[in-house]
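ok trying this again, last paste got cut off
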Amino acid sequence: MSSRLIGVGVGPGDPELVTVKGVNALRDADVVVVPVMAAPDGRDGGERGRAEATVLHYVGAENVVRVVFALNERADRGRREAAWDAAGERVAGLLREHAAVAFATIGDPNVYSTFTYLAQTVGALVPGTVVETVPGITAMQDLAARSGAVLTEGTEPLTLVPVTAGAAVLKEALHGPGTVVAYKFGRQAAEVAEALRESGRLDDAVWGSALGLPEESVRPAGELGGAPLPYLSTLIAPARREGGRGGKL
């Protein structure tokens, strides 16, 4: 029988935002893999990430396997690829030993997730592996709930931009229609603030980081300064809306 690799979205950080289906998938798996950042020497740096911290609310530590990914490696492509290969081999080994391996990822496994790449790698190493995903609450949904921002109304489009692709992509989106959400913009906070000013969308925008955690911060985008923010910061710039209640229904 083929082994199963299940990508489980565990939300942005608040353990209460893991779905019932997600909890069941984590508990039913033989082992749960959590991604951890590599230390400078390429080994497990020992830091507990959001995915692991969330999983441990529902699964015993004895069933959790930490696998090193070069999640914080941006400059050295060779080192990053070597870490990917090693991580893929580690998970492939687990799939050869177990019928069901879950991989916990923050947010949703099909939205800018490490799981997508892992599934491709493992599929090549262990042919016949059945890949499944369990959806999770995304950071933009959580920030919308915590800030009161409405993501979409009526026929409005919703544009999601990873600012790691460059501030120019965000600027283009901000000059278009609908709500714009920016992920991973913390290191380019000053450029993002300027793009919001240029497009006239600063006043209604909001940003947040560490959602659902003790260090959570949810603030108006007008307070953005030049200092870098946490890497996983999220921004919502709502659509320009006129016509009052029900105008777009």
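PB: full thing came through this time. DSSP finds seven helices and ten strands in the chain.
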